[in-house]
Write a sequence for this structure.
């Protein structure tokens, strides 16, 4: 299993890593830039880097399917694996379209938030063994209940038709909120993916493990080019794909409680963004000495960190990654104990 894991990870990592220099060059020639808002000089940086993540992730998953189908080296439920894969790729496509035309064509905020619902359809359609639904202070709901006129209704369908799309949409939009600094979104998502990779391996959830491992390889490779000073941005393709990937792994791996806990920083970000009616960005105000100053109205965790001292962009990101690492360690420890 160690060799198979290494092959899947390395396939995803190296294709992402190898494609990025070529992609950066082509994007520069095409003039597809984004402005690095956290630099005093406001340099132009190629965006659409999420394309490389799609290539790398796809190669990792396809290799795993090849090892299962033709060499019989690993046993996988291809229906579940391909449902998760399809959801993630659909989300990535939505992110790519948003990167290309979204803000230019005036896609409204509520439309942007609801678009990922369509990408959840593959996971909604596939039958997945999910845990019983628990209501706080009440306990688990019965599998079925009889209602006059309607007859017997299965509570399990609530999971597939309601909770799955909420999870995909919520996670995708969450990872899209706490972003905008060099290495921030790719770093946060990588830490969560690493935790889910370990958790799914321990519980022998092979489909979740393959998806997590393939995503992790791609994100770590991308982080090398996105770290300060960033040579390329991932755009909405990266953030939406990362969030959908996390949600998909949690759903097919039966790790809902761990998944929710790992998103703790994003829940805090949601509350801070809500204070500004979701109008605030995560950017700081760049100073001549290279530090970032928080705006007057706090609308992001990045602003909270900036208020703590005179930090550079790299230091702000490092602090937030350290916070996420602590959340991951606590969450993984609780997962093992309970």
């Amino acid at each position: 299993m160690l060799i198979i894991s290494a092959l899947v990870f390395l396939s995803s990592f190296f294709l992402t890593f190898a494609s990025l220099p070529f992609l950066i060059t082509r994007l520069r020639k095409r003039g597809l830039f984004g402005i690095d808002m956290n630099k005093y000089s406001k340099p132009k940086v190629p965006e659409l880097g999420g394309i490389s993540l799609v290539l790398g992730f796809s190669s990792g998953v396809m290799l795993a399917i090849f090892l299962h189908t033709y060499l019989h080296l690993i046993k996988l439920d291809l229906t579940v694996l391909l449902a998760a894969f399809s959801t993630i790729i659909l989300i990535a496509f939505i992110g790519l379209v948003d990167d290309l035309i979204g803000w230019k064509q005036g896609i409204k905020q509520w439309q942007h938030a609801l678009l990922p619902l369509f990408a959840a359809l593959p996971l909604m359609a596939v039958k997945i063994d999910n845990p019983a639904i628990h209501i706080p202070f009440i306990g688990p709901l019965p599998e079925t209940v009889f209602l006059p006129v309607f007859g017997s209704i299965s509570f399990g369908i609530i999971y597939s038709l309601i909770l799955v799309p909420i999870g995909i949409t919520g996670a995708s939009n969450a990872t899209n909120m706490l972003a905008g600094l060099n290495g921030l979104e790719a770093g946060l998502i990588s830490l969560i993916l690493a935790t889910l990779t370990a958790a799914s391996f321990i519980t022998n959830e092979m489909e979740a493990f393959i998806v997590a491992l393939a995503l992790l390889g791609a994100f770590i490779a991308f982080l090398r080019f996105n770290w300060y000073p960033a040579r390329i941005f991932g755009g909405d393709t990266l953030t939406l794909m990362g969030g959908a990937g996390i949600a998909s792994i949690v759903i097919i791996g039966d790790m809902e409680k761990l998944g929710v806990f790992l998103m703790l920083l994003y829940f805090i970000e949601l509350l801070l963004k809500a204070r500004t009616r979701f109008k605030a960005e995560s950017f700081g105000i760049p100073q001549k000495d290279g530090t970032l100053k928080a705006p007057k109205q706090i609308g992001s965790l990045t602003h909270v960190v900036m208020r703590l001292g005179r930090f550079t962009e790299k230091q702000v990101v490092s602090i937030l990654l350290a916070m996420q690492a602590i959340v991951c360690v606590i969450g993984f420890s609780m997962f093992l104990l309970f």
